[in-house]
Design brief:
Order of helices and strands: HHHHH
Structural class: mainly alpha
Distance between the termini: 36 Å
Largest sheet: none
Number of helices: 5
Radius of gyration: 14 Å
Helix content: over 70%
Shape: globular
């Protein structure tokens, strides 16, 4: 595993950890936390291609779903 894959793996782990915290925390700004958590989840799916590239090449449907979710990334950040 090279350096880029290692950094990608650590980044995906941190994004998943932060998004799970935002989803399960109770706060007055619940809608903002959920939208930001969804943005982080979509970002982590995009970054997972750094170290799961062979998996995505073998399963075309999952790869197409991942590529389609990338288009939701910026609207989730906007709202």
């Amino acid at each position: 595993m090279n350096v880029i894959s290692s950094v990608g793996l650590i980044s995906v782990f941190l994004l998943l950890l932060l998004s799970s915290f935002l989803l399960f925390s109770r706060s007055p700004n619940r809608v903002g936390n959920v939208l930001f958590a969804l943005f982080l989840l979509v970002t982590s799916l995009e970054l997972s291609g750094q170290f799961l590239g062979d998996f995505y090449r073998n399963y075309e449907l999952i790869n197409k779903l991942r590529m389609a979710l990338v288009f939701l990334q910026m609207p989730l950040l906007y709202f």
